[in-house]
Task: inverse folding
């Protein structure tokens, strides 16, 4: 679910404040996982929990943890 994925993402950010999108995608993955990940990341960006930056077109997206709104 999106709620569980969002929780898991925040948990990873609490261990490491900077992560790349590629670090969230395992080698073997199904479409449902990618869609859930995408929606979760968008929700976290919208709630200002994470920030993102992409250096070049088609390069990896870098995320920075800004803090959990529930903290």
Result:
């Amino acid at each position: 679910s999106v709620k569980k994925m969002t929780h898991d993402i925040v948990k990873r950010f609490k261990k490491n404040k900077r992560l790349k999108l590629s670090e969230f995608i395992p080698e073997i993955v199904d479409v449902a996982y990618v869609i859930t990940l995408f929606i979760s990341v968008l929700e976290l960006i919208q709630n200002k929990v994470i920030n993102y930056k992409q250096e070049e077109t088609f390069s990896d997206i870098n995320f920075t943890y800004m803090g959990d709104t529930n903290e």
